[in-house]
Specification:
The complex is a heterodimer of chains A (248) and B (286). Chain A has 248 residues and is α/β, with parallel strands linked by helices. Chain A contains 11 helices and 10 strands. In chain A, the strands form 2 sheets. Chain A has a 6-stranded mixed sheet with strand order 6-7-8-3-9-10, sandwiched between helices. Chain A has a 4-stranded antiparallel sheet with strand order 2-1-4-5. Classes of the chains: A alpha/beta (248), B alpha/beta (286).
Chain lengths: 248, 286
Amino acid sequence: MIKIDNLDVWYGAGARETHVVQGASLHVERGQSFGLVGESGSGKSTILRAISGLVPRWGGAMSIDGIDARDGHRGPQRPKYLRKVQMVFQDPFASLHPKRLVGEAISEPMKINKMDDISERTDALFAAIGLTPSHRYRYPHELSGGQRQRIAIARALALEPDVLLLDEPTSALDVSIQAEILNLLERLRQERGLTYLIVSHDLAVISHMCSRLAVMSQGRIVETLDRDVLAHGKAREQYTRDLIAASR
Amino acid sequence: MNPLLDIKDLSVSFAKEDGTLSHAVQGLSLKMGREKVGIVGESGSGKSLTARAILGVQSSQAKVTAGHIRFDGIDLAAATPAQLRALRGDRIGMIMQDPRHSLNPVHRIGDQIVESIRLGAAQSGQRLARRAAWTKARDILEAVDIRDPDRVLQLYPHEVSGGMGQRVMIAIAFVREPDLLIADEITSALDVTVQARVLDVLDEMVSRRDMGLIFISHDLPLVSRFCDRVLVMYAGRVVEEIAARDLAKATHPYTKGLLRCIPRIDGPQEPLPILQREASWLEPPP
């Protein structure tokens, strides 16, 4: 479903140019949940941004469900590509418009894409994320952090995507709320056959949610391994083992 | 001998729009010596407000009441603003979560440490030359495990990483060698490996100078490793107090629930247990 080969991303130009992702490759099967873990600045979020078409300059090859990312970002395939891939950010307060009702936040992408039965779909989305339709008429500041992240997830699901890109989806939340959101995400993945690419600095969150993961450091993938290998402490690279030791 | 800090029945409340009070901290008591005390709980449980009330730096809307708050025998509630100012920084220090908000963005890190050193010297009636203070600043940065202190002294806050900035904040807090240090979520924004280094530095400084430390965090496992004992707060109250190493044997359903819902690297990939909040947790303990 997600194919990335030899991805390079650069920020800045000339003397200020930095090579933030260097030759990263990863393949994620349909319905799989894949984790990207690493410290801040390791380039993990940049990979998500690159898939979404949010980085100006990149090299290598990326495709989603067979659609080449270059056609998907700019070319005729753009509407189709962007409906397939949706993103959920770390801080739902920053990613929701403060003066729009959250119901509008969820229905707007459906209006833009001229979908039918928008009102019914919005109600169904509220039910799917464990809120009631009455929450449609709230503003983001009237909701708790966990409820706001649920809204962000519903908005990402509005266009019925195949892939969710989740960037530190629970880092801003207390552990009790994190547990609820992680359970919700896992249930939605199973019910809807979604494919997840999850970025987190928290190895335990990745290990809980994913079947396979890549460990990043300084723009490179240092190791790609199965979750079971990680859980049994059989990581191959020293960097991964250090990360495991520091996470206990 | 006086305990280092003795708080009896601390409450912090805010006036609501309808004139009634909303209690953010209720009936908190704490007696501590030169030890590491952790305060844990979720956001909004009153941890940071407690820290601010001790220092007397709560917002002007907050109403603080207490049986007493004594620091080394000094009644903080009865202290004048000038007496409080003299205590803050000199005998009670505080470090907050984000060094980028605590450091002045338009001054070099070196100048900010030097200012603190010279203020400290002035308070004890000495005059310290700038150059001597600069040398001292350099030594302090070395003590917090910064390898090239000369370079870091010349940098502005935005030019250092989060972990480096937090070590600078620890350095500044230790300049005056306070007796009590309050650390509020100081490692929450840091990567795990950096977190470990910052905590090592903090631990070394606290043990070597025989200080008291109040360590506020939402991270229960971390507090359990780092502190001597832990207060668990829920909705403004301390619901449980326990030796840090016994945190796994906590008895309050809230503490147990919080610990259970944390995912583990080698845990089962099954739905995480959800914390079921009980109305009885909001009642004062019998």
